[in-house]
Design a protein that fits this description.
Elements lengths: L1 H12 L13 E8 L9 E5 L5 E6 L5 E5 L6 E5 L6 E4 L9 E3 L16 E4 L2 E5 H4 L7 H5 L5 E3 L5 E3 L2 E2 L3 E3 L10 H4 L7 E7 L18 E6 L7 E10 L4 E11 L3 E10 L46 E14 L4 E25 L4 E26 L3 E22 L2 E23 L3 E22 L8 E20 L2 E18 L6 E18 L2 E6 L2 E8 L4 E8 L2 E7 L4 E13 L9 E3 L4 E4 L6 E15 L4 E23 L2 E26 L4 E18 L2 E18 L5 E14 L11 E15 L2 E15 L2 E15 L4 E8 L6 E8 L2 E8 L4 E9 L1
Parallel strand pairs: 1-7, 13-15, 34-37
Antiparallel strand pairs: 1-4, 2-3, 2-5, 5-6, 8-9, 9-14, 10-11, 11-12, 14-15, 16-17, 16-47, 17-18, 18-19, 19-20, 20-21, 20-46, 21-22, 22-23, 23-24, 24-25, 25-26, 26-27, 27-28, 27-29, 28-31, 29-30, 31-32, 32-35, 33-34, 35-36, 36-37, 37-38, 38-39, 39-40, 40-41, 41-42, 42-43, 43-44, 44-47, 45-46
Length: 857
């Protein structure tokens, strides 16, 4: 069978399962009961060889029935469950059915430490025992999540399970944080959480359960008994000198059945950015009610972020306050409020050299930047939710106000300059979603309405008197998307039919153009979707048909287009350990995100973009596959993902570079972009040895059209990356972590250059935690990076940090931290962007030492 073939093929890759297809016996089965004949569920059934090595495992269902994959070399089956005597049954030739009767075992708990299994399974829910993964240095639950097999956490705090973003994070079954769940996971004390529950393929909307599948997981945090129905949290205060450096934070949490409260306050000037706390994470329920905000018109021409910790270079003063409150009228009806304030001011200094190449000439541009940034953001959300089997109803109103000011006292090819960009933006939106379940049919409605406005002002003073001293641009944006749909059973599956009406209107005003420039479109979509339920998965066919009508009255332009985007997706669970999902489709898109205007928009002191008053269209061919494996018995997880895309657009951008000017011009013509990327990661935990090994590999290929300084051609560039990490904490007084990584980029010769433009870099880090006595923790970490600046010329950067923590009690401790002990003064890196070369030098903060106090309550 196909399922058996796929299982065997990918299990061989990791020596997890032998070639059972060589044996006539395909599976062992039976029933597990207690001495009274009552079925026992969740019993771990292990197939062992003659040396007690694990070959396969399964869990009994609620009725005690199990099915265990037959593997060559199997000699016995072991049945184990907490509170019962473990039993082993020897296999007999030709016998496939083995029933087991377990006897209860009396457990004396006095003066005995009972260690729970790190992971247990209850149907489609995995229960991670937090204490089994927590290390002494862990501060927040996010630190623990990063070590759990099958779970990955990005730098911004977004959580993925088996390679896919999760639905959401609940606390005791309630959604307190919404899309800002990273605020909770990054500030919830690790010792407060007893269990992390992963509900696989969870449908968070109860009215859709059993009718519309969902391949994502939901994460739920279960608190320890002593942390429920009482306030808890912690306060941190850290200060250092020369110059004065500080890092302070306060977290207060109160969780009970009807009310949940989380307050977070942070302030620092030691290089810790708090901006990620303002961004929402990926959300399942936002499928039809999410639309990115318009991109700003004005930006820094050479803004670069070095690939090192911000602790080394970010010169900031950051403040953040977040108040989150949820009241549960019942378990299914909740009212939630989320309010946040963010302020950041800082100094960004760098030196950048850009070399823009063409076949006949090379344009070199250098800049020294000294940018003083200041940003403020206020955001409020009020959300009501009713989530029952018969009805799902939610309404969310939100408002955001943002202010920005960036003053650059720098120099470039044109001489010294002072450039200031001021920005003010706001948005007000309402999101409504409703689903009614009548058993026979589903009816659903969703709607988003948003009003957005921005005003940007650019002022330039320089040695070049030709540059304008004052330039402004304004944008007013109205957006709405409304959907109605129904879903009913058909031919063993479900057929959903939806109609979507979308409208967007942009009004743009800019210096040099007297009249407002207005563009709008109507987008109508008929969206039939058929989902066929497989025994352990689903097959989904989506056939949306779209009609768009675009209008730009100032230029007398009206565009109409019909688009058809078929997509086939399969999601299949090969076993309790393995799953596969794949998709293939052709997607036709209209570029509805670009803001139309005519004339030249000034983006910064040297960059101008010519506007377009017509809508661009594209066709994307795509195919992807993901294979995931999670064995909770052997603590092994891996995930492989590959995607191929070919995008055909009717527009591309041509760039003209001069010493004092960059001009970006849209050109109507064929533009094909082909890409392939593959990513694989693996995580293995040896529990008895307290050793964890993680690996990551990636490769990407891109073929893209480039046009600059009169030369056009396709550029083919590649990037490959590999990383290995190891963690060991067998000894109670010592923990070690090691990471080694390497990266290489290259391209084929093309119309712009005859070389491969190969660049290589390597990274290594080592951290040690030493506990000579129970109350004292000493730690240090060292990191080194080597970057190839030009061919066979390298730049090496070494960093060393150290610290100490002493616990006076469970609630009070003092700390001492030192960052950049070697007092590195600058960081250098280079890269190729297509055929263009960039060299970046960033001055570092220097050595920072702080003493602090931590109070838990």
């Amino acid at each position: 069978m196909v399922k058996d073939f796929i299982l065997i093929l990918f299990s061989l890759m990791l020596d997890c399962v032998s070639a059972a297809a060589q044996n006539d016996m395909t599976a062992y089965s039976g029933k597990v009961t207690d001495t009274a004949g009552k079925a026992v569920g969740n019993v771990t059934c292990k197939l062992l060889d003659g040396k007690d090595s694990l070959l396969a495992y399964a869990l009994t269902r609620r009725d005690g029935i199990y099915s265990l994959k037959a593997v060559n070399g199997g000699r016995q089956i072991e049945f184990a469950f907490l509170g019962y005597e473990t039993r082993r049954i020897q296999l007999k030739e030709g016998c496939a059915v083995y029933d087991a009767r377990l006897e209860r075992k009396a457990v004396e708990l006095k003066n005995v430490t009972v260690t729970a299994d790190p992971i247990t399974r209850r149907k489609d829910t995995l229960l991670y025992n937090v204490d089994a993964f927590r290390q002494k240095q862990d501060r927040s639950i996010e630190d623990v999540l990063k070590r759990m097999p099958g779970i990955e956490v990005s730098n911004s705090g977004e959580i993925s399970y088996q390679g896919k973003p999760i639905n959401k994070v609940n606390i005791e079954g309630l959604d307190l944080m919404g899309a800002q769940y990273n605020q909770a996971t990054q500030n919830m004390p690790a010792e407060a959480v007893a269990q992390v529950q992963i509900m696989e393929r969870n449908q968070p909307i109860k009215a859709l359960e059993g009718k519309v599948s969902n391949d994502r997981a939901t994460l739920n945090l279960k608190l320890k008994r002593g942390y429920k129905a009482r306030p808890f949290g912690e306060a941190d205060g850290n200060i250092g000198g020369s110059p004065v450096t500080w890092d302070n934070r306060l977290t207060a949490i109160n969780i009970n059945k009807k009310n949940q409260l989380l307050f977070t306050g942070m302030m620092n000037n030691c290089g810790i950015s708090l901006e990620s706390l303002t961004r929402g994470m990926n959300s399942y329920t936002g499928m039809y009610t999410t639309e990115p905000l318009p991109a700003p018109f004005m930006y820094s021409p050479t803004a670069q972020t070095p690939p090192i910790s911000q602790l080394y270079y970010l010169k900031n003063k950051s403040y953040y306050a977040g108040l989150n409150y949820l009241h549960a009228f019942t378990q299914e009806k909740t009212l939630r409020m989320n309010v946040m304030y963010y302020h950041d001011s800082g100094l960004q200094q760098d030196s950048i050299f850009n070399s823009y190449t063409a076949k006949e000439d090379t344009v070199n541009v250098f800049e020294n930047n000294d940018i003083h940034n200041k940003n403020d953001l206020v955001k409020g959300i009020l959300r009501y939710e009713q989530n029952t089997k018969s009805m799902y109803l939610t309404d969310e109103a939100s408002a955001t106000l943002g202010l920005g000011d960036a003053l650059n006292n720098g120099s470039s090819n044109i001489g010294t300059l002072q450039e200031q960009v001021k920005r003010k933006q706001y948005d007000v939106q309402n999101i409504l979603e409703a689903t009614i379940n009548t058993d026979a049919m589903l009816f659903d409605v969703s709607s988003i309405v948003r009003l957005y406005g921005s005003r940007e002002r650019l002022g330039v003073t320089s040695d070049d008197e030709k540059l304008p001293t004052d330039y402004t641009a304004r944008l007013r944006n109205l957006f709405t998307r409304n959907r109605i749909g129904t879903n009913f059973s058909l031919f063993g599956g479900s057929l959903g039919i939806g109609y979507i009406m979308e409208y967007k209107r942009n009004e743009t005003t800019m210096s040099g153009v007297k009249d407002d420039m207005t563009g709008s479109y109507w987008l109508h979509t008929l969206e039939p979707k058929y989902e066929y339920n497989l025994p352990d998965g689903s097959l989904t066919l989506t056939l949306p048909v779209e009609y768009i009508s675009y209008s730009y009255p100032m230029r007398g332009i009206n565009t109409h287009k019909v688009m058809f985007s078929p997509m086939l997706d399969i999601d299949y669970k090969l076993s309790t350990m393995a799953s596969v999902d794949a998709s293939v489709g052709i997607i036709r898109n209209a570029d509805t995100r670009s803001v139309p205007f005519y004339g030249a928009m000034m983006n910064n002191y040297r960059t101008y973009t010519l506007g377009t008053d017509s809508m661009s269209f594209s066709r994307t061919k795509t195919a992807s596959i993901r294979l995931s494996w999670l064995n909770t018995a052997t603590m092994l997880s891996w995930n492989v993902y590959a995607i191929w895309q070919q995008i055909n657009q009717d527009r591309y951008f041509s760039y003209f570079y001069a010493g004092d000017l960059t001009l970006i011009n849209p050109v109507w013509g064929d533009n094909m972009h082909t890409s392939f990327s593959g990513v694989g990661n693996v995580k293995k935990i040896w529990r008895n040895a307290r050793f964890t090994l993680k690996g990551y590999v990636s490769y990407s290929y891109n073929k893209t059209l480039a046009s600059q300084n009169g030369v056009e051609g396709y550029i083919r560039y590649n990037a490959a990356n590999a990383q290995v990490g190891a963690s060991w904490d067998k000894l109670s007084w010592l923990t070690a972590n090691l990471t080694v990584a390497g990266n290489i980029t290259w391209k084929r010769p093309d119309a712009f250059s005859s070389t491969d433009n190969v660049l290589k870099n390597a990274y290594c880090s080592l951290s040690l935690d030493f506990m000579p006595i129970k109350a004292l923790r000493l730690y240090a970490d060292a990191a080194g990076t080597t970057y190839e600046i030009t061919h066979d010329q390298y730049s090496t950067n070494l960093f060393l940090n150290a610290g100490a923590k002493y616990d006076f009690s469970k609630t009070l401790s003092v700390t001492l931290t030192a960052i950049n002990l070697l007092n590195r003064e600058s960081y250098e890196i280079s890269s190729y962007q297509g055929s263009n070369y960039t060299f970046l030098r960033v001055p570092l903060r220097g050595r920072t030492v702080m003493a602090g106090i931590n109070l838990k309550f």
